[in-house]
Design goal:
0% strand; mainly alpha
Length: 116
């Protein structure tokens, strides 16, 4: 079924807990970077799953205008995330980016293993 959305629901509490912990330790930039990298990974995964759902099917692939508009919107969102990371490039802590992406992937793995 939709593994990416299930993975989001599984890993979102962990990311929120980590962000709150970073805020309590007075690391707001790390919390922002963690949250943005997690959101970028989740949205990229959801978009990729949606595109593959429509293109890789037994019937004729459906490449429609709404799908193209959605792709443009996703790319705009990712550009915005990258712009924020660029503005905060001096304060960006790479471990926070890695943790955000890792939590997204861990949620997908958990959801994938649980779906079988």
């Amino acid at each position: 079924m939709r593994v990416m959305a299930t993975g989001f629901r599984a890993s979102a509490p962990w990311v929120l807990g980590a962000a709150v912990g970073l805020l309590l330790y007075r690391r707001p930039h790390a919390a922002l970077v963690l949250t943005l990298s997690f959101l970028a990974a989740i949205i990229s995964g959801l978009w990729l799953e949606h595109v593959l759902w429509h293109l890789l099917q037994p019937a004729r692939p459906r490449l429609t205008k709404p799908l193209l508009w959605q792709a443009a919107g996703r790319m705009g969102f990712l550009a915005g995330v990258l712009a924020v990371l660029f503005v905060y490039r001096r304060q960006v802590e790479l471990w926070a980016v890695a943790l955000g992406v890792t939590l997204a992937v861990a949620g997908w793995v958990w959801a994938g293993l649980r779906s079988k």
